[in-house]
Amino acid sequence: EMDDMKELLGDVDVEDLEIIRESDDEKLTDEEGKQVIKIVNLMVTQAVTEGATDIHIEPMERYVRLRYRIDGELIQRNPIPLQLRAQITSRIKIMASMDIAERRKPQDGHFQIRHQNREIDLRVSTFPTMTRARGVNEKIVMRVIDQQGKQLKLEDLGFLPNTLAKFDEMIRKPDGILLVTGPTGSGKSSTLYAALQRINMHYQNKRNVITMEDPVESNIDGISQGQINPKAGFDFADGMRAILRQDPDIIMIGEMRDHETCEMAIRAAITGHLVFSTLHTNDSPSAYTRLLDMGMEPYLLASTIRAVLAQRLVRKICSRCRETYDPEPTLLDQLGLRQGLQLYRGKGCRACNGTGYAGRMGIFELLVPDQEVKRMVTNRTGSGEIMDYALTAGLMESLRRDGLRKVVAGATTLEQVMGATQNE
Question: Which of 9, 123, 168, 227 has its CA 20 to 30 A from that of 42?
Answer without folding.
Answer: 227
